[in-house]
Amino acid sequence: MSPADWRQLIAAYLDGRLSAHAFQRRFLEAYGAATMVPAAVQRLYFVVEAYGGDPIARGHAVSDDDDLFRAAHGVVEELSEHLGPEHGEPRPREGDVAASIEAAQTRARRAAVTMGAVGTLGCAAIAVYVAIGILQFFAVSDQIQSVLAWSAAPAALVGLLLAFIPVVGSLIAFFGAKDVWLWPWPVAAGVFLAFPAITYAAGWFGHRRGLR
């Protein structure tokens, strides 16, 4: 039996759920079958073994009801110093509590650092996305102005309508950066084709995960 089981058995007697004789019988049976017994229970054993239910047969070496009750009550209190009050679980030691608190604080600090890093990366990605969007608008406007020989105002108006249309705006901006701004085509492709493609793919996969 565990210390919690011993405490439950003794508490049943103290609460009146077991008579003294029934408690004596069950206690002695459990004690005889146990391989390891708490020290407090060992001391109670001598009182339980000496308990005599017949008042006439009691002598000076025989425990009476008061002796048994006081001894049982003392053992329950001693066991309760090491066990939880409800479920018989070991109470956490102060060192264990401090270690748990420190571990929780460490996890909280790590989570805060991780969230801060994710937030920083997210803000940086948004800033880059906005910057490329603005750059794409100018590239589209300049390409329209160059190809159609329009003035700046109507080219800017149409460019504003076309620049943020998926695929269409990216392709026009790519040719504008390559042909009008004279960017190397790999650079133009990376800015106006690769980055939007990665962004759209990430958004699509995120949406798919959200639907599952």
Provide the residue-averaged pLDDT.
80
Task: Kindly state the number of beta strands.
Answer: 0
Question: What about the largest sheet?
Answer: none
In DSSP terms (H or I, runs of 4 or more residues), the helix count works out at: 8
Structural class: mainly alpha
Radius of gyration over alpha carbons?
A: 41 Å
N- to C-terminal distance:
49 Å
* Apparent shape: rod-shaped
The helical percent reads over 70%
Detailed description of the structure:
By secondary structure, the chain is mainly α. It contains 8 helices and no strands. The chain is rod-shaped, with a radius of gyration of 41 Å. Mean pLDDT is 80; it is low at 85-90.
Summarize the structure.
It contains eight helices and no strands.
Essential attributes:
212 residues, mainly alpha, rod-shaped
List the helices and strands and how they pair.
Layout: H1 3-14, H2 20-33, H3 39-50, H4 65-80, H5 94-148, H6 152-162, H7 168-180, H8 185-211
Helix pairs in contact: 1-2, 1-4, 3-4, 5-6, 5-7, 7-8
